[in-house]
Amino acid sequence: MGESVSFEADEELDASGSAGEPPTPRDHSSLFDELQDLVLSTSDMQEFLNELAVLSARSVSGTEDSVLCGITVLRRRRAATVAYNSETAKAMDELQYAFKEGPCLTAASEQRTVLVQDFRTDGRWAEYSEEVSRHGIRSILSAPFTVGPGAQAAMNLYSYRPDAFDDDEVAFAESYAHQASKGLQLALRMAHYSEEADNRSRAMESRTDIDVAVGIVMAQNRCSQAEAFEILQRASSTRNVKLRMIASEIVQRVSGAAGATHFED
After folding, report:
1. Which parts of the chain fold into alpha helices (H)?
2. pTM
């Protein structure tokens, strides 16, 4: 069993489930327009993901505050909540990761919709259901996103009411997830490219320090480039410190500052 997560229910929601009848979901054409606007108007990847979570919850329930939404991404056998419209939704997702089972993990990994009408009577994922029920969550609807090779994802909609999602809302959520998948694919691709760019930048900065350190060792020891590099490698092996750290120390000791890398974005 995973560690217990402590938090209070969101103030804007009635944990007793007395909020009244759920609003009617909006039509598909309006939703498609909103998804397009969201993709075109949001330049920051994390902002896009958070807005997608808000839109997901509002689209299925009809109002932003009626349900909680988290978006789970599975990548390299690790699960993470990349966006959410409520801290409670994020905590409920993370409970599943702690137990290593639950509706959203099933929806993402098996690429099928999972509906739990009442955690108190549903027989699946017993430990997770018991823990979620303790925090007032009664039902969940998880619908998979299609995000391409290398990752799996699902939209997780939580409610404090039992039987919160009827057949029409399940069908709408599945259609919505299908339409929103392209936007999520774009966001994940942007994140991947950003991560690769950061890695390249760090690699170039490390290479700069190493090249400068080799030059310093060549000048101090009146040796060749190959011999200077061997000296750095021996120092790295002897001290059990990475080569780039050795190089950075030498550069900073001589110049008082780290080596600078100059390149265009």
Report:
1. 28-41, 45-61, 87-99, 103-110, 126-134, 167-221, 225-239, 243-255
2. 0.59
